[in-house]
Design brief:
Elements lengths: L68 E5 L4 H6 L2 E7 L7 H15 L1 H4 L3 E8 L8 H8 L6 E5 L5 E5 L6 E7 L2 E9 L3 H7 L1 H6 L8 E8 L5 H13 L4 E4 L8 E5 H6 E5 L7 E5 L5 H12 L3 H4 L3 E6 L2 H13 L4 E5 L5 E5 L3 E6 L2 E6 L6 H11 L4 H4 L3 E6 L7 H12 L6 E6 L2 E6 L3 E4 L5 E6 L5 H14 L8 E7 L6 H13 L4 E6 L2 E6 L3 E7 L2 E6 L6 H11 L10 E4 L6 H9 L4 E4 L5 E4 L7 E3 L2 E5 L6 H16 L9 E5 L9 H12 L4 E5 L7 E4 L8 E6 L6 E7 L4 H13 L1 H4 L3 E7 L14 H11 L4 E8 L2 E9 L9 E3 L8
């Protein structure tokens, strides 16, 4: 493959631009010959692509355009049919005699791909026809084409007597049989025969291995260069099964472990049979295995191999021995049947799957669900006692909740039979029962109340059960002491190492409020939290506004922080609404919560509130050489003044050495004259003493410098050429959008009339530093004013442009013959190469 050539673009080194050389414009002689800028040639879409390398490594069949037709023919006589097994006919058209051998070889090579099995290890007659005479030299390439298929005989018929080209003996493969106890070992030694050849060679031998196979176990192995094909193994299997063999295992690859193909004894140990019973649709009959190993093998062979038949089905396991049945229950359960009943020797089926108990455990918490699946109460208790030991790992030292079906009566008898008799021996940390919404701690009792003194003392054992269970017990205990809680302070203490959850706190607060307690304190994990009275008070002013205040009520700072952490979660704010925080200065947590939870606006203060969110100013950001302060003003001027006074000191607090900094204030809608809140912000920023202060409406607008005041420079003549036929002037005009400053520029042009009259005037606009400003659009006020002023003075006006990084001047007005509007010329300040 010839690689493509990539076009190289030549580059010329660009000389540095000497800005001071503008004074030498008079020496430029080629101005009349300034060329219009031509478009750059486009790079072809494929000129940067290189051809991919040839992968190589693939051998392709030679092209065959010889016109030779090859197919299966008929053996013409009994003599031929006795001598040959198949006839291949080749019709060769007229061609050069010297080309025939190669052409025949190519055509045969292609044709034998599809006729390989017709030719392999058979007697073949190749009969030529057509217009060409087949030379004797063609026999050798003919033999080469047929050789890989090892025909027993290949004869060529080309107008003479049959000529033998290939003659082979039928290859042999050894099929040896040896006895090892009750197992007959069959080894196929195929040598270098491939699977197709081996199947042909062993056709007669396979039938013989069935002799005296009845009652025998067979193991089939293989030694050779290839592997036993699936159809050959299938043929051997069918032969042995038909001959009454008990068992067959086979290895298709040399040295591989044999795989079981059939075993009549295992089929008798375990059988699967479809059923139409109302309670089950598949019957598993378990006989009497010799030992555990045979039981395992029978399962692996009969059931595990048919796992798809068991998954999701209703099963009944019928066993001779109960122990054997129990050994299989776990295996069957792993396949996830919809239902499993076990029918033992006594014939009474017991529902085993689905199990009564379903458990979920995390860390030291366990939930046990009761799913009767049709069991009555007695059967459920029996199943509970049978299955609970299986969950000992998630019961021992765990907090356990037993969830009964809704409507179950959680009575003392149930607690005794399931907890005292079945669960306590497993050593749970705690036990609670649940039915529907009712949770009752059973072991140990979690709440103790002493309401005899002036204060009510409550002890809560946090390790007695799951938090919701303790919360239910707590609500029930508070209800039972309701008359003793009125007007008292509840001092509660959490005992144990378990967490005191939010649910428990809510239950405690609700009970204390409901039963008239004046104050509620909770001591947990060494900290006393004040839960009542509430820390936060709120009222909705209207649909979109909420007023929030904070009342410490004797709390210390830590208790206020804890109260905020708890009560903020209960504070419902209007989405995209206003949050008005009154009273004392709010904590940062209260402000953050209001913002994080969808408040569109946050106000501080009572009568004259100040908006703190969204803020008026962003943080100072450094962009290029400026420190940028972005403002987001509203239309409320009074609010803006308060925001400026509140926020600017914070925004400028980190500003060091302001006299060295350039500040840019981005105030949407800013336009001169600067008045109201914007003027107030400008005064505050000027008081900070920056080196430069500029104001703009946004990033796209040109900023106006407000500090220090800019002294406008006059129009400058940057270059001239008086020797040309039409004189040329290059003038620089400082950019501005101030109407009064634009008028000054127009007046300056009028004052320069004598010097500019009839000349070609090249105009470039300058920034405040005297450098070229970005080219202005034609509708810019300054551009329009300058063009209008020059129309009555200059012979032609050319404005500075940039195109694809190149500096140039474009004719926008012209009274000079031959100089057309729209013509572009290179910037005479730049060397020609630029």
């Amino acid at each position: 493959m010839t690689p493509s050539r990539r076009r190289r673009r030549t580059s010329r080194k660009q000389p540095a631009v000497d800005l001071e050389a503008i004074e030498e414009l008079e020496a430029v002689e080629e101005l009349e010959a300034l060329e219009e800028i031509e478009e750059l040639p486009e790079l072809g879409a494929d000129e940067d692509l290189e051809e991919l390398p040839d992968l190589g490594g693939l051998e392709e069949l030679e092209e065959d355009d010889s016109g030779i037709e090859i197919g299966i023919g008929e053996l013409a006589s009994d003599e031929e049919r006795d001598k040959y097994d198949i006839c291949i006919e080749a019709a060769v058209p007229n061609m050069e005699r010297a080309e025939i051998p190669a052409a025949v070889h190519r055509s045969l090579t292609r044709a034998l791909i599809s006729h390989a099995e017709d030719v392999r290890l058979r007697r073949v007659l190749l009969r030529f026809g057509g217009e060409a005479m087949i030379p004797s030299k063609a026999k050798e390439p003919i033999g080469e084409a047929f050789a890989p298929l090892r025909p027993l005989l290949l004869a060529v018929q080309r107008g003479y007597d049959d000529e033998t080209v290939i003659e082979n003996e039928m290859p042999s493969a050894e099929l040896s049989v040896s006895e090892e106890g009750d197992t007959r070992r069959v080894i196929v030694r195929g040598g270098d025969l491939n699977p197709a050849e081996l199947r042909i060679v062993l056709a007669q031998e396979i039938a013989k291995i069935g002799d005296e196979a009845s009652g025998k176990s067979f193991e089939l192995g293989y030694e050779g260069s290839y592997r036993l094909s699936d159809d050959l193994i299938q043929s051997i299997q069918e032969t042995l099964q038909g001959a009454g063999a008990i068992r067959l295992s086979a290895a298709a690859d040399p040295g591989a472990d044999p795989k079981l193909l059939f075993d009549r004894e295992l089929d008798e140990v375990l059988q699967l049979r479809e059923a139409s019973d109302e309670d089950f649709d598949l019957l598993i009959s378990l006989g009497k295995p010799k030992d555990t190993a045979q039981l395992e093998a029978a399962w692996d062979w009969s059931a595990a191999a048919k796992a798809e038949q068991l998954t999701g089905r209703k099963l009944r396991l019928r066993a001779v021995e109960d122990d054997d049945a129990q050994a299989l229950v776990k295996k069957i359960a792993a396949l996830k049947p919809a239902r499993l009943e076990v029918e033992g020797a006594e014939g009474n089926p017991v529902l085993v799957l689905p199990r009564l108990l379903r458990s979920v455990s995390k860390e030291d918490r366990t939930k046990i669900g009761i799913v009767p699946s049709g069991r009555d109460e007695a059967a459920s208790i029996e199943a509970f006692q049978r299955e609970i030991p299986l969950l000992s790992k998630v019961v021992h030292e765990h907090r356990v909740v037993v969830e009964w079906p809704e409507g179950t009566e959680l009575n003392e008898a149930l607690e005794k039979s399931c907890v005292e008799q079945a669960m306590l021996p497993l050593g749970p940390k705690s036990v609670a029962f649940r039915s529907g919404e009712t949770i009752i701690p059973v072991y140990p009792t979690p709440v103790q109340i002493d309401a005899q003194g002036d204060d009510c003392l409550v002890e809560i054992d946090t390790e007695a059960g799951p938090p919701k269970a303790i919360a239910t017990a707590l609500a029930l205990r508070l209800e039972s002491h309701a008359s003793q809680l009125q007007g008292k302070c509840l001092r509660c203490e959490a005992k144990g190492n378990g967490p005191f959850s939010r649910t428990m706190k809510r239950t405690l607060i609700a009970g204390a409020q409901q039963h008239g307690a004046t104050r509620l304190e909770l001591r947990a994990e060494g900290f006393t939290d004040v839960l009542l009275p509430p820390l936060l008070h709120s009222n909705h002013v209207d649909e979109g506004t909420i007023r929030v205040s904070l009342d410490p009520a004797g709390r210390n700072e830590a208790q206020i922080e804890a109260g905020l952490d708890r009560e903020l979660g209960e504070l419902v704010l209007p989405l995209d609404g206003t949050v008005h925080i009154t009273g004392v200065d709010p904590s940062p947590e209260l402000l953050k919560y209001a913002i994080d939870n969808g408040a569109a606006r946050v106000l501080l203060g009572d009568e004259q509130s100040t908006q703190v969110y969204p803020p008026l100013f962003d943080e100072l950001s450094e962009e290029n050489d400026d420190l940028v302060l972005r403002a987001h003003p509203t239309t409320d001027d009074e609010m803006l003044l308060r925001q400026i006074d509140r926020e600017l000191p914070e925004r400028l607090a980190s500003l060091t050495a302001p006299e060295e900094k350039r500040l840019l204030l981005l105030w949407p809608g800013a336009s001169k004259p600067f008045e109201g809140p914007l003027a107030h912000a400008i005064d505050a920023l000027k008081a900070k003493g920056p080196a430069v202060l500029r104001v703009a409406a946004d990033e796209e607008a040109r900023p106006a410098q407000v500090h220090p005041k800019i002294v406008r420079r006059p129009i400058e003549i940057l270059g001239r050429r008086d020797t040309a036929e039409v004189p040329m002037r290059l003038i620089g005009i400082e950019w501005t959008d101030e109407p009064e400053e634009i008028e000054i520029s127009v007046q300056q042009i009028s004052a320069m009339r004598e010097d500019l009259e009839a000349a070609r005037v090249l105009v470039t606009f300058l920034d405040h530093d005297g450098n070229d400003a970005p080219p202005l659009p034609d509708d810019e006020p300054l551009t329009a004013a300058v063009r209008a002023a020059l129309q009555g003075v200059a012979g032609a006006t050319l404005l500075h442009r940039e195109d694809s990084g190149q500096s140039m001047f474009e004719t926008v007005d012209s009274k000079i013959e031959g100089l057309e509007v729209g013509q572009r010329f290179r910037d005479p300040r730049k060397p020609k190469s630029q």
